[in-house]
Amino acid sequence: MRDYTKEKAMAGPRPVVLSGPSGAGKSTLAKKLLEEYKGIFGFSVSHTTRNPRSGEENGKDYHYVTREVMQDSIDKGEFIESAVFSGNMYGTSKASVQAVKDKNLICILDIDMQGVRAVKTTDLNPIYVYIQPPSLTILEKRLRDRKTESEESLQKRLEAAQVDMEICKEPGIFDIIIVNDDLDNAYAKLKQALIEEIEKVQKINSS
């Protein structure tokens, strides 16, 4: 019996997985892609059980849901990946990715290392990119400058970052590792890594 669900999931442009510690600059780089290549990229909006921060919008920054709703969806197999951080659940639903791919856009997924491993068990076949801060010291300064973290949460993020920065070196996990020590240089490297897929979508859109 043919798996039509799997076939549909494979339709559309190849997605891009952006991973790296909070504060490495993933969101900034993704926004630059979206601005330069309008009609080429789309952002997969993740789900979370945490409360919105000031200025964040439901459906744009995250889908804010209750723990019960999210767990029920995960149990039904509706999520590609999910994780718990600082007591809050985060995850990427299949529907949010497919919604982007259905528009013939390259779907950008901003996910953690646990999520990366989960995606590797699916048929998404994305391009895996790791965005790395120049050092843990610089990462700590960036996180403190945000003023959005409690001290406990900040220390947890730094501990997780240290582990991730070791795991990312393992062969076969990421297609490219970009050290974000200069935003313009990091962005140029990111574009180069994705240019083949970008040109494919541009060609389809212009035909």
TrEMBL record:
Keyword Nucleotide-binding attached: yes
Cellular component aspect of the GO annotation: cytosol; photoreceptor inner segment
Compartment(s): Cytoplasm, Cytosol; Photoreceptor inner segment
Boundaries of every Guanylate kinase-like domain copy: 13-195
Region spans: Disordered: 1-23
Entry keyword set: ATP-binding, Cytoplasm, Kinase, Nucleotide-binding, Transferase
Enzyme Commission code: 2.7.4.8
GO molecular-function terms, A-Z: ATP binding; GMP kinase activity
Catalytic activity, reaction form: GMP + ATP = GDP + ADP
The protein's name in its UniProt record: Guanylate kinase
Protein family per UniProt: Belongs to the guanylate kinase family.
Residues annotated as signal peptide: none
Species, as recorded: Esox lucius
